[in-house]
Each structure stands twice: as C-alpha cells, then as structure tokens.
Amino acid sequence: MSAGPVNVAHDEANHDHDLHSHGDTHGHGSRKSYLIGFALSVVLTAIPFWLVMAGPLSAGVTAMAIMAFAFVQIVVHMIYFLHMDTKSEGGWTMMALVFTAVLVVITLSGSIWVMYHLNTNMMPAEAMSEMR
To answer: What secondary structure letter does DSSP report for 23?
Structure first.
C-alpha cells in the first residue's frame, strides 16, 4: 500500500508542529517563579482573611485593605502565572490590558454615577402619596 496524500499531509503537519512548538515566542515560567507566585498568592489571600476574621481594623479600613491586596494579587497573577510584561507579543498584550482597564473604569464609574443620581433624583414613596 502506498503512502497516499492523507498520510503525507499528516506527516507534514507533524513536522510543522515540531518546527513551531508551543512557546517558541512566549517565555514560560520556571518552577521557582511559579512557587514564588503561589506563595505570594497565598500570603495575599491569608492577610485579608485574617483582617476580616480577627477584626483589628474598622470596617472601612478593612475594605480598603482588602481592595489593595486584591489589586496586588491581580498584578502577581499577571506577572507570575500569565507571564505578562511589556516585551511579550511586542507589547500588544500590555496595550490590550490597558485598553481593557480603561473600558472597565469607564463602565464602572458610569454605572456608579447613574445609580447615585437615580437614588438622589428619585422621589420617595411617601412624597408620591402626598401629591395625590
């Protein structure tokens, strides 16, 4: 039986896969970097958990601390697990991240602004019944 076009195409596809193996242009983390990222993630989760459970700070300060730890944890995940930096993909991944962050900020701030003004401008039910 001769090697038909399907077998030849399959062999060529396997060779092309070897030439362009996964991660040729992307840096993958070492075991050390993954362990550092994991340790930082555990610490950045444990501290806010302790702040809530022990209650050493007021509720407002605790909420701000949790948000700060959450932001730092997002950065840790992007660096140690997603391997995002200014060099990967010629800087396009960072550009996409900035664009996404701007859209999220616009959406959240617009939503909060609308909800605040709806609450401020809505007439209470008692005032509505007095008008009738």
So the answer is: T
Let me know the angle formed at the C-alpha of 76 by 38 and 81, rounded to the nearest 5 degrees.
Answer: 65
| 31-81 tens-digit pLDDT | 999 999 999 999 999 999 999 999 999 999 999 999 999 999 999 999 999
CA distance 91 to 46: 33
- Calculate the CA 104 to chain-centre distance: 11
Would you state the structure tokens that stand for residue 29, as one six-digit string?
């983390």
CA 52, chain centre distance (Å): 23
Closest CA to 40 of 85, 74, 83: 74
Q: How far apart are CA 4 and CA 20, in angstroms?
A: 25
Contact 132, 123 (CB under 8 A): no
Tokens of 11: 């062999």
* Threshold 0.85, pTM exceeds: no
